[in-house]
Every structure is written in structure tokens, then in C-alpha cells.
Design goal:
Elements (H helix, E strand, L loop, with lengths): L5 E2 L1 H5 L19 H27 L4 H18 L2 E6 L4 E4 L23 E2 L5 H14 L5 H11 L4 E2 L1 E6 L14 H7 L7 E3 L5 E3 L2 E6 L5 E6 L4 E3 L5 E4 L3 H13 L14 H6 L10 E5 L2 E5 L21 H6 L30 E7 L3 E6 L13 E6 L7 H7 L5 E3 L2 H9 L3 H4 L1 E2 L6 E6 L21 H11 L2 H9 L3 H9 L24 E5 L2 E5 L5 H12 L10 H4 L12 H17 L10 E7 L4 H17 L4 E7 L3 H8 L12 E7 L7 H4 L18
Parallel strand pairs: 6-17, 23-24
Antiparallel strand pairs: 1-25, 2-20, 3-18, 3-19, 4-5, 7-8, 9-10, 10-14, 11-12, 13-14, 15-16, 16-17, 20-25, 21-22
Helix pairs in contact: 2-3, 3-16, 4-5, 14-18, 15-19
Length: 708
């Protein structure tokens, strides 16, 4: 099963908050699948067995608050296992911008942050003082529905003019324009403006009716009935009407999503009645799945059990509508007849082969150059569209200063400041007056450790990013990586702040650091909860943040990781903005234990006989070259040369991605340390993160550990 995974490069690097992916090619790596699966299971049980047991207990919790508390315990076990090292989140870097804060939703999950239509964009950059005055105004007015009007009044009073266009950079074209057949954010972020969902988060982060005017939930929490807005049109890319939006569009969309199995299907497995059974092929009659158009404008979802976060899922692509008649006109079929490789199958191959019911139409696409969106003249909520034209402009990131020159030339409407750009902005005299620090969000990036390295070159061509390691080097590294103390030693030796400084600059190197997978404040307890922590009944009061409970379990287990610090953020407490992992003394202590344990297995580790670990980097990017160098220097220095980091040149971003981000299976992972991935939440529950570490090809992130 596939999952949505984020690439690091254009989210924290180029520092543009974007992500990237390309289509995977047939693998050149050959394995005995049965043997590989058995080995994967053995490694998983040893490394993540405690997490799995704790997580299964959490899924059986009787209340939402107990669920959160037990999930925090389960995540503590992930972090203690050190199969991954959380690194950063999105945001926390300098930016000069024309985009008015608080006018585009900043909700932490789903796709609504990429809708843009509600945004206000000024003709000139917003000053530091005005930006933070507007942020304070948003905090004051959030939930009242009045912020946009008040922001407009503020801007007029302070001499700003608004434009109805928005230009932003991108680095990778969409592979598909079918939002229901992809789990990749580089695709979905470009498709989201073309359709509306049942409900969507507004710019004040409130869930509002969209194509569903209203809804009801049954007393038992199992039935959700949505009343669909009448009179909404489906149009083609030329704006010509091709269909009318009806309840059946969500039935067709759900079936197509399950047929395509592009990575979204896991969101509804075990949630909607018979979703799992249809996806697995156990049943083939889609009418048995719990989504039904009762009539043209009444849509009903039937759940397997109450789901506290069901409504928060509606902003993600899995619940996108699709015109059945337009889909079939483009060669689309359903069920056992579905075949996206058929000669007459054109749906989603380009912006000209999808139907639109959202605020924008794609009117121009030149790959590697630009994507232009124009306001949909038939859009039912046209009065809410503040931006009439949105233009994505290609930038491959090879020239870090191009973002600044494009911004100063008026070609894009914001620029995120790498260290090089900070220096330019300072020299131009604009830094002090205009540079703001962007807010962080719920996306988490991390380094993954390959516990079962098989590939020594990229799976798509067998030559790119080729390792210099011998078979003996690979075997030694795999044995070492399967030792938890060795993994902790590498994690504690990784100076994440110094690495991040290559992206953000020295001033902000800690601002975007994240110490856990799920953000420490993603959820909090709704009521007092008592759970067992290492045999001791421990009570956490209502309002306790998720991170506090994670830290309690980690402390009880005696592992030197800080994921929540009550003294951080000027005494307000936080799990972000400081390095709760890097500690040379702890790294050395863990390494000593690892060396002793591994010696008993017959593996000698010393400065004369070190462990070699590959990290692939894109030499196309100076920033990412510097980041890989910073990791190499910190690990080798802290561990006294007992661990040697081999920097393997992946060439451009594509070569790097094929080593780290594109693989569908663990045996295709061409690295020992994967620093190219991350995860953004699909809905408002910690399971959106923790599900990614499930075994048996179910969890997306497990492939990054060289298993499944």
C-alpha cells in the first residue's frame, strides 16, 4: 500500500514550502520477494515491535483522550528506536512577501492550504511591522468571519494596494492531474485549485460548507448525510459546461480512487464500510461500500465505527468529487475494467483531460516553465475569489539567488531567504524593514536509517548515485544499523542546527527544528486520563499536550531525548525550536554500548575498521551539498571517525529523489541515511503520522528503513 510522502527539497530547502515527485520506473533491483518480506518482518519486529504493540493498544482506546495519550506512548517508542531522526518542519525562515498573513488557510492538515483563492496580495512588499500587526489582528478576529474585511481596511489605511494576481515558484511538474490517483503532494498541490470539496477550511481555519450546504450525523456516529449544493457546473479547461455536480460525483470519485490505488486509499480503509474489502478485492460490487447517492443531492457515508476526525478528512483529495460522465468520456472505467494503461485512457493525463468545479481553470501549461490558472467564470462562489490569476513559475533551485532576483523583478510575490539571499537583502537595505520569520506548521521532515541496504545504485537505471561500498561494507553497515544503540549514536551525533543553518542561515538555525514525528502540540487531552507508564498509573490532566506525554514515557525509559521542554519558548513550553537530540557525550555513550553488543555478534567497529554510511546529495544544489557536508562533519567528529559518512553524488534533484524519495519498496532505497523525506498530516489525529510506520507494506515510511 502506498502513502503520501513529502520530499524535503522544496519544502525546507529552497525554502519555498513545496514538494516534489516524479513517476517511478520499473526497478532494476531484483529480490526474492518472499524471503525479503520475511527478513523485513524480522527486522521490523526487532526495531519497532514495541511501537506496534503500543499503537495497537491505542487504537482500542475507549475515549479520544485515552487514544491520544496512548498514541503518545507509542510514538515515544518510535523515537527511542531511533529508526528515524526528526529534523525540521516547514517554516521558521526569513521571508519577504506580498501575501497578506491570515488570508489563506493555515490549517495543519489536508490540502486546503493550497487553494489560494481567498488570498490577498499587495503590489509592494509588506513591512515587518505591518505583517505582525496583521497577524495579531488575525489572532484577535479568528472565528468571527471578519478578518479579511478588517485586513483590507488596515491595508488601505496604511497605503497598500491590492493586486488580483499571485505568482509563486515551483520546481517539479505534476506527473498526473488526477487528484484521486496520486498521493504525491507535488501533484495534488497543483490540482487542488481545480475542484471544491464537501467542506473546506476558510482563511480563519474554520471548517465551512462548500459543495455540501449542510450535513447531519446520526446519533451513533456511523452515518454522515451531506446535502449537496444545487446548480454547480462541471466545466472543461475551456470553461465549457460538461456536467452538473450531483451526489453521485462523490460515489464515482471514491470508487475511482479505490480502483486507482494511487496512495490515498489507506485514509478510508477501516473507516468507511467495506472500503478495505473493495480495495483488497474481497468484494467487487462497489454498491456494498459505504458511500451512496440517495438522490441527486443527498450523499451518505456509512462508517464502520465512530471516527472523531472524519470531518477533518474532507479537506483531503481522497474525498474529491469526480464527474462520472466526463471520466468515462476520457476512457475511464470502473471496477475490474479499470485500466489506466489502456490506449483510450486519457483522464488526468493533462489539465485538458479533467473536469473542473473549483475556483480556477488551468489555461496554460509549459512543463519546466509555468502553469497559469485563471478564475473559473462559472464558479458558484466567485465573489470569494480575490485572485483572478495564479501563475506558478519554474525554478530548479540550482541558483539560490534566483528567487531574490525574481522577486525584486516582480516575477514572484514572495522570496524565502537563504543565507546568500539574506546577505543580498541586507546589502540592498531591505532586510530590517521587510524580512519576517514564517510560522512553522505540522509537516515533519526526518532522516531515515536503512536497516537492510540492498540497492547500491538508483533502482530506475542501476547507475546513478552508485555507491563505492563493498559487499562487506554493506553487510557491516546493515548489522550495525540493526542495533538500536548504534542508531541512537548516529542520531545524537547529528548536529541538526548546523545542518539547518545551511538552509535558513545561522540566525534561524534552531527555529524550525522539530524533535518528534507528530508535533508536540498537534492534539491535547479533552479530559483527565490515567494510563500505565512502565507499571505506574499516571494521570494527565485535561489540556495536556501530546508532547508532554511522549516525554513522560521517554523519561521513564531513560532515553536521553527531549521532545518537550517546559522551559522552552520563554517558559511557555515547546517541542520545537531547539535541538533535543544532538549531544556528543550521549552519542559516545551509545556508541560504546553498540560496539560492545556488536562485538558479541562478531562485528568489530573501530577507527581502523569503521562503519561506512552513504548519504546521497544533489550536487546541483549548493545548499544541499552543504547540508550533506555538515552532517558528515558532525557525525564523524562526534563519533571519532568510527563512523564514516560517504557523500554520494546524485547529480540533480531527480537523481537524489530516485535514491531516497521515489522508491516504492525498501529494497530500492539507495542510501544508508535518507535525508530527503517527510510527512504532512492528512487529518487531525496522530494516527495520520503513526500509520506510516505500520508493517507489511501498509506503512509508507517503513520502506525508508529498507523494509517492506
Amino acid at each position: 500500500m502506498k502513502r503520501k510522502l513529502l520530499s524535503l527539497v522544496l519544502a525546507a530547502s529552497m525554502v519555498m514550502g513545496m514538494t516534489s515527485i516524479a513517476s517511478a520506473e520499473e526497478s532494476t533491483v531484483s529480490v526474492d520477494f518472499e524471503e525479503y518480506t520475511a527478513t523485513s518482518t524480522e527486522i521490523y519486529d526487532a526495531a519497532l515491535g514495541e511501537f506496534y504493540d503500543a499503537y495497537m493498544e491505542a487504537l482500542e482506546a475507549e475515549t479520544v483522550s485515552e487514544r491520544y495519550a496512548l498514541m503518545a506512548v507509542a510514538e515515544a517508542k518510535i523515537l527511542e528506536s531511533a529508526v528515524m531522526l526528526p529534523t525540521t518542519t516547514q517554516g521558521g525562515y526569513y521571508r519577504i512577501t506580498k501575501v497578506v498573513p491570515g488570508t489563506i488557510t493555515s490549517v495543519l492538515w489536508g490540502n486546503d492550504t493550497e487553494r489560494y483563492y481567498s488570498g490577498l496580495v499587495t503590489t509592494e512588499a509588506i513591512t515587518y511591522d505591518d505583517y505582525y500587526e496583521l497577524k495579531a489582528l488575525w489572532n484577535e478576529l479568528r472565528g468571527t468571519g471578519t478578518y479579511t474585511d478588517e485586513a483590507k481596511a488596515y491595508l488601505e489605511e496604511h497605503g497598500y494596494e491590492l493586486q488580483d494576481t499571485f505568482s509563486l515558484p515551483y520546481a517539479t511538474d505534476a506527473v498526473t492531474w488526477d487528484v484521486l490517483a496520486t498521493s504525491l503532494s507535488a501533484d495534488s498541490e497543483k490540482i487542488v485549485p481545480t475542484y471544491d470539496g464537501l467542506m473546506m477550511y476558510d482563511n480563519e481555519n474554520e471548517l465551512q460548507p462548500a459543495l455540501a450546504e449542510s450535513y447531519e450525523v446520526s446519533d451513533d456516529g456511523l452515518t454522515y448525510t451531506f446535502h449537496i449544493r444545487e446548480g454547480v457546473s462541471w466545466v472543461d479547461s475551456q470553461g465549457r459546461e460538461v456536467d452538473t455536480v450531483t451526489a453521485d460525483d462523490w460515489v464515482a470519485g471514491m470508487q475511482h480512487m479505490m480502483d486507482a490505488q494511487g496512495g490515498l486509499e489507506y485514509l478510508v480503509e477501516g473507516i468507511i464500510v467495506n472500503a478495505t474489502e473493495y480495495i483488497s478485492g474481497e468484494i467487487t460490487d462497489f454498491s456494498e461500500v459505504g458511500v451512496e447517492a440517495v438522490d441527486d443531492y443527498t450523499l451518505v457515508y456509512t462508517l464502520t465505527e465512530p471516527c472523531s476526525y472524519f470531518l477533518s478528512m474532507l479537506g483531503y483529495g481522497v474525498f474529491a468529487p469526480m464527474s462520472r460522465t466526463y471520466y468515462t468520456s476520457q476512457g475511464g472505467k470502473f471496477g475490474l475494467e479499470y485500466d489506466s494503461s489502456a490506449a483510450d485512457y486519457n483522464y488526468g493525463k493533462s489539465p485538458d483531460t479533467i473536469a473542473y468545479c473549483g475556483p480556477y481553470l488551468v489555461t496554460s501549461l509549459t512543463e519546466g516553465s509555468s502553469i497559469v490558472y485563471e478564475a473559473n467564470p462559472t464558479y458558484y462562489n466567485a465573489d470569494a475569489v480575490n485572485l483572478q490569476t495564479i501563475t506558478w513559475k519554474y525554478n530548479d533551485g540550482s541558483d539560490a539567488t534566483k528567487y531574490y532576483t525574481d522577486f525584486t523583478a516582480g516575477d514572484v510575490d514572495y522570496v524565502t531567504l537563504s543565507q546568500e539571499i539574506v546577505e543580498l537583502a541586507v546589502a540592498d537595505g531591505v532586510f530590517d524593514d521587510y524580512a519576517i520569520v514564517t510560522s512553522t506548521n505540522a509537516t515533519t521532515y526526518y532522516n531515515d536509517y536503512n536497516l537492510n541496504r540492498i540497492a547500491l545504485a538508483n533502482f530506475n537505471d542501476g547507475t546513478t548515485a552508485a555507491s563505492s561500498k563493498t559487499e562487506e561494507d554493506v553487510e557491516r553497515a546493515n548489522t550495525a544499523m540493526q542495533n538500536v544503540h548504534f542508531r541512537r549514536a548516529v542520531s545524537f551525533a547529528t548536529d541538526r542546527a548546523s545542518i539547518n543553518a545551511q538552509t535558513t542561515g545561522e540566525d534561524l538555525k534552531e527555529t524550525s527544528l522539530r524533535n518528534s514525528l507528530t508535533p508536540w502540540n498537534f492534539v491535547s487531552l479533552e479530559e483527565d486520563v490515567t494510563i500505565d507508564i512502565n507499571g505506574e498509573a499516571t494521570t494527565f490532566e485535561a489540556g495536556t499536550y501530546y508532547g508532554v506525554i511522549m516525554q513522560a514515557q521517554i523519561d521513564a525509559d531513560g532515553v536521553a531525548i527531549t521532545v518537550y521542554d517546559a522551559d522552552a519558548d520563554e517558559g511557555n513550553g515547546s517541542g520545537d525550536g531547539y535541538d533535543g537530540w544532538y549531544n556528543v557525550d550521549n552519542a559516545v555513550a551509545e556508541l560504546e554500548v553498540a560496539i560492545e553488543e556488536l562485538a558479541e555478534e562478531g562485528l568489530e567497529i573501530s577507527a581502523e575498521n569503521p562503519i561506512y554510511l552513504d548519504i546521497v546529495y544533489p550536487s546541483q544544489s549548493e545548499i544541499y551539498t552543504n547540508r550533506a557536508n555538515a552532517l558528515k562533519q558532525s557525525v564523524e567528529s562526534a563519533l571519532g571517525g568510527v563512523v564514516i559518512i560517504n557523500m554520494v553524488d546524485g547529480g540533480d534533484y531527480t537523481g537524489w529523489y530516485y535514491a531516497t524519495y521515489y522508491p516504492s519498496y525498501g529494497y530500492e532505497q539507495n542510501c544508508d541515511i535518507n535525508d530527503g523525506t517527510g510527512w504532512g498530516p492528512d487529518y487531525g489525529d496522530p494516527s495520520t503520522y503513526l500509520d506510516t510506520l505500520l508493517p507489511d507494506y501498509e506503512g509508507y515510511t517503513t520502506k525508508c528503513f529498507g523494509i517492506f
